[in-house]
Structure prediction request, 1190 residues.
Amino acid sequence: MTRAPLRVPREALLALIVLGIVLAVGARAPVFLTLRNALDVGNDSAILVVLVMGQIPVLLTRGVDLSVASNLALTGMLCALAGKAWPGLPLPAFLLMAVGIGALLGAANGWLITRFFLPSIVVTLGTMSIYRGAIFVASGGAWVSDQDIHPLIKGLPRDTLLGLPAPWWVAAAVVAGMAWLLRWRREGRELYAYGGNAVAANYAGIPIRGRLTMAYTISGALAGLAGLLWVGRYSIAFTELASGYELTVIAACVIGGVSIGGGVGTVGGALLGVLFIGVINAALPVIQVSPFWQQAIAGFVILVSVMLNSRAQRQAGRQILERDGGLAQGGTT
Amino acid sequence: MKALDTWERVLIALVALVYLGFGLTIHGFLAPFAIADSTTNMSEKGIIALAMALLVVAGEIDLSIAATMGICSLAMGMAMRAGAGLPQMLLAAGAAGIACGALNGWLVTRWQLPSIVVTIGTLSLYRGLAQVVLGDQAITGYPERLSTWGNGTLGDLVDRPGLIVPIEFGVWLVAAAAVGLLLHLTVHGRRIYAIGANRIAARFSGISVDRYRFALFVFSGLMAALAAVLLTGRIGSTRPNLALGWELEAVTIVILGGVAIEGGRGSIVGTVLAAVLLGSFTFGLGMLNVSGIVMAMIVGALLVVSMVLPRWLKYGALLRRVRVA
Amino acid sequence: MTSKTHSPVLTLRGLHKRFGPTHALRGVDLDLVPGEVLALIGENGAGKSTLVKILTGVYRPDEGEIRLDGERRRFDRAQQAQELGVIAVHQETVMFDELSAAENIFIGRQPMRGFPGLRYIDWPRMNREAQQVLDRVGARFAATTLVRDLSLAQRHLIEIARALSQQARVVILDEPTAALSQSEIRDFYGIVRGLKAAGIAVLFITHKFDELFAVCDRYVVLRDGASVGHGTMSEADEPGLVKLMAGRTIDKIYPSIASVPGEVVMQVRGLSHPTEFDGLNFDLRRGEILGFYGLVGAGRSEAMLALMGLNPAATGEITIEGRRIAIREPADAIAAGLAYVPEERQRQGGIQQFSVRHNMSLAALAGPRRPGAGRLSAGAWLSARRESALAERMIERLAIKTESQHTPLSGLSGGNQQKVVIAKWLGLDPRIVILDEPTKGIDVGAKQAVYQLIAEMVAQGLAVILVSSELPEVTHLAHRVIVMRRGRQVAEFAHEHIDAEAVVAAASGLQPAPSPGGGRIVPPGPLAELAA
Prediction:
């Protein structure tokens, strides 16, 4: 696909900024540049990558899914409870459960939005609370703590394949899948089309309800998957898990150039957004800045990236005058 | 735009239903002190809902309003620690609110950014700043007068013990009346409706769209300051998680109250009724010892239902036509 | 009606369509034959765009039948019409700016490759096939170019390429040359001939007579929603067609303008914008109708927006009644006595959800800042009484057809909506009214009413700027006509010297045009001393 000349420098710029931060922090504290540190950043980021990949199709269609964190926590809790009740479950069962429940929760969003023509921000604001409350109802308010977490779930972050932890592979598979969908499948191209011009998409006969439902179902499914990974990584499940994390997901997307107005955004850019946040969060303790700054920085970075993106996309007035200005004397075309 | 229409009548009926239902099943729900008590939390949320309603009617949204409350409370606490008296503390809270609102307004109007993403960003920024300053500490030791405002009744002010209407409720009603008059009876209100219904046509008709939008965000900050002062007075402390999640409740109240999320429609009477409905409902649930999380879940469900219902029932189309006039 | 050599691919019989009180189509018959270009002629508001929307499946007819290859069809969805080979190319192309030309051509039906269950888009093949069909229509850009970077003429080519690649059997061209230069139009005729040669039936909608005679084979005339005449172009002539279109002699539609321009009320000097227009200079007199003619996209609307303070990057000097006025925002323009009825009624002119009454009071809310004019409010407080009185007054004065002043604007016909928008501004008692394409898309009866309104306005001493792309409007109504082309003022004609050919030529840049400063034609006689 031909990239517009303006966009490649922007993503390259982001990559340069990330590199700059890494080098700057590494100069202050060399431990930052070790492989060990990179693996830690990667591990923390794998979950965010999965969530961000799910948010991209939603954002492309001019929507937003604020329920992902609650979805993640609910699915994670249900998997944990299942693991506690049936110790004999194999790993594929958990994976199926996580993706299945997450997809169902996401499809519910999609149904509400497409069937009743409701704005996604308000719907997902509502389901965010509903799913969060359901965790309490399901668990009775009790935590599922370390000893009760199924060993297969706990073991996920430690399982390695070719030297890399399982979450990395999951994230890589998800990234590959999303890149495939967005570039090589009609369904993915139609998401860009709808987000760019909903009227034209209608005229072109694109099945809008189906595509929108697909976007929210994917978002939910990946949130569910992330929930399993989260419970495995932190070996705990409770009601307030990942509370507020949806803002981090959106921040990573916006920083990575996925426009909240729809129709614009790439997998590569979003990955850079995740990398950016991961590097910043890892850098804070190293340069002895209190982790309390994390949220403020995330907010600040969202604002700056949105401002910069709008600059790039802002058009001046239409170009009506001929550039050589030779018309006033009258001439033939 | 009409202040009392079909939807408002439905809300009145629902409020009556809640009071009747809980009144019969919960002992003490209808006791005067209980009713008075139930209005305090309702009033604080109701105050920010007023500002949110104006913004949503104008086609915008402010998801940072609760985080702004945190900043205002923080400003007040810091002023107190610096030795300021009550008036200066209030000034600090107000100034902080105005500054937070002005930042939102500037980003939205000067940079032409969608308010949803701007206020998601400032929500993080303001909460984060409060966290940075306070860490996991709290500020306490506020003057007694502040506590009176938050917990006291109008009777305390005029020395009539029989008047148990809380001060907070009185403040809210006065604010609601003022905002209601503005929206429904003045040119400014009409222009706000126009901006929300069709921003371009409003601009072409000579309305200073950006000036109004900026002003509404600043007003939102100011209402956040007012609510923060009352809330801080009531609970007696400033923490970084003050009013956490209240932006969701404010949006719910506004939507439940009949304000269309796409703008151009809605009334303050509906907003007030929805605040009363939600407030009394959650108060009753609280008396039944329902946990906060489940209450939030019910609020979320109510939000969704309140949007689905009009579009599902056939009378939804009629509702839209009637409410335009 | 059918040609003797081919049977028609598409026939319409007795089509009717109503929108609430408006009876947009009252019985339309037509036949489209492969390899032939049928001209669909009619005035604004005659029902042409409604007909096109029915043919493309956007609307469904209330009565009548559509036959494709002799079989009755219903186009239930836009997709269906396209699948059956009926494709429309509109004046305002509806495309995906952020996608490439190739993607726009193949959206929804990209060629795929791979195994069942693992199929993916064949980008090289898609780009190749797109380039082939683009070359066929004479496009000189790569299929991989983003549509965002292409001009309107180039986008039209993509639409036609899309039609060709979809095995179109019927191509509807809706005012396709409105914004094209003369050379681009010549190229376009070639493409139309190419479509004919490919056996495609073409429905060509235009109101430019030279085009009709240049490319079309037969014609059908629509008037007030019904087909009133048909025949071959070789046997037709312009006066006959005009008579069929108008249904009455042309003079009856346009009122006589009795007013004589008085003293100068506005002087514009050096109105410029970095990219949209440059160096506009003109005067406007009391009681005058000043026409602004030009092709679509010539920059006229942009210049008018600047006069109203809606175009912040514009510069220039504006003097109203002898005083220099700085116009930085619409409120300044309104206070100076300007009013602007915009081109896009739905998006810019009125608020569809608001009632007629609320729309009318929109601009007058706090009252104009000029003394002596009526106020709608007492300070900031709205006066329902005054608002209601204004609405009733305007409804009567402009003969607006509406159930009541509380009806939402969306419930009125296009013509009546336009009257409401005009009423909004008249309520302010302006000095200068700018009308931007005021009769676009409204029916003939309403057009007449609008022209009558314009005549009354100038009779009462208002000054009117009429921006229009309809030559007859401008030639019949305007005291003077300024022609703009590509953002510059290229000619000025006084009423007696208006020559349709010269005006069109100036607008399209065919011949050297008289330069703006010097060649101003001064009317002889008593008006001579008024020409400064």
Q: What stands out?
A: The interface with chain B takes residues 308, 310, 329-331, 333-334, 340, 342, 347-355, 358, 361-363, 365-366, 377, 380-382, 406, 408, 424 of chain C (CB under 8 Å). Confidence is low (pLDDT under 50) at residues 512-532 of chain C. The radius of gyration of chain C is 25 Å. Chain C has three domains: 10-248, 253-337+431-530, 351-429.
